[in-house]
Amino acid sequence: MRAVSANLFALLLLCALASVLYVWSPLEERLERHTRRLSAPGGGSLHHQGLPADLSAKTFRALLAVPAAQRPHLGGRLEAHNLSHRAVPAGSGGYRTHEDDKGSTRREGPVQSGFPVEDGIFWAEWLEDLRPVGFTEEYARGWRERARTYRVAKLEPGCGRISNQLATFADGTKACVRYGINADQVQGETLTYYLASLLGITNLPPLVLSQLNSDSEQWGAVRAQIDGLQWSERAVVSLTQWVSNLTGVVTPAPLRQESGGLHPALGELRSKSTAELLELLQWTDLIAFDYLTANFDRLVSNLFSLQWDPRVMERETNNLLRTARGDLVFIDNEAGLVHGFRVLDMWERYHRTVLSSVCVFRRRTARRVAELHGRGDARKRLLELYRDSEPWSVDLGFLSDEHAAVLQDRIGRLHEHILHCKGKYGQL
Ligand SMILES: Nc1ncnc2c1ncn2[C@@H]1O[C@H](COP(=O)(O)OP(=O)(O)OP(=O)(O)O)[C@@H](O)[C@H]1O
Ligand SMILES: [Mg+2]
């Protein structure tokens, strides 16, 4: 009996030690990122400008970022779930272009075109017409095609943590290279990008995958830097377009915890300026999107941090930036889909709280969610788009069947929530 107790005690001790290591390693990594960010010359990050260096509330996200089951990094060919062939780059057009800027002057003034919500729960058509168009499909396709051919002339800090590097191409344009702490993160970033494309959400900078290969034309000039970073040869990394002059974004009042949420009966919608309404419109896409992908590394992590940092909502939201013309830019989506689904148990109640705070949607987003729900084919469509657009998709792999089912389930839940809002506010 005593021997059994001793064994049990030893086992418990081992479990406790393992848990500490499990939690500490990502925390340490995040803390390193935070420290580096605060001290980086030129400040790759905008998040903490003007804040004291000891203000580390956001690093608490780390405590919750349970590491993915460690997989070997993408040095070689990964298990490629259900990917049978490479295909030629493709995409679907049909969106307004970046240059279609008919709304730029009309955005500034107060609302003159009537109530911003119509048919119960949808942003009004006149507001949609003024919406910043973001990275249209056509624009993104052009960037992706060019980025595949560009040669990287320089790698330097400027895109956050050390595992991200700011790449300057030979023509002077830039991209953020994400090596990822593990393969899940590159996969999450990439599949999240293509899911946004399926939904017609154009707030994510264009992304391509590339294999680090110092013999290749693309990476040859930065061979020494890649060695210095200890990035493994033949790893698959993502490149996202670097966008200049971005600034931080604070969560708008109706979406903060202390408010009653963003819904069609909200009186203050009448007094908002067009620019404020356009921002809210993009936020509603962001919230629906982060719910689908279970991305905890934006608004949801702020909600969690409220427990010890009551003013967190007054600070800039993580991984969200804004262009001078008012487009929200959703960066750093690597927590989405893969990692986000793995740690869903821990975060789901926060995801639901955030989703339930919104009862206004873009009509097109709601329609696409309804289609994906009705057909039950999210996995198939995401896989096709990814495979047809990204030559390295075979090497990076796709969602597991289990995670594809989680995605379909979340699409259903989002659809139900939209119907619930329609039932509640449809008669207004
Ligand atoms: N596509 C981009 N265009 C311009 N700047 C970018 C882009 N991506 C990242 N950055 C800059 O790098 C910073 C950090 O980016 P990112 O979130 O990807 O890295 P991170 O290591 O996760 O940092 P954090 O812990 O702040 O989330 C951003 O706040 C922004 O200043
Ligand atoms: Mg980030």
UniProtKB/TrEMBL annotation:
Q: Which InterPro entries match?
A: FJX1/FJ
**Keyword Signal part of the UniProt annotation:** yes
On the tree of life, the source organism's domain of life is Eukaryota
For bias type Basic and acidic residues, the affected ranges are: 96-109
Segments of this protein annotated with the region Disordered: 89-111
User: Which Gene Ontology biological process is one annotated for this entry?
Assistant: cell-cell signaling
In the record, which residues are listed under signal peptide?
1-18
Q: Which keywords annotate this record?
A: Signal
Q: Which GO terms describe its cellular component?
A: extracellular space
Keyword Signal in record: yes
Q: What name goes with this protein?
A: Four-jointed box kinase 1
What's the source species for this entry? Scophthalmus maximus
Upper taxonomic classification of the species? Eukaryota, Metazoa, Chordata, Craniata, Vertebrata
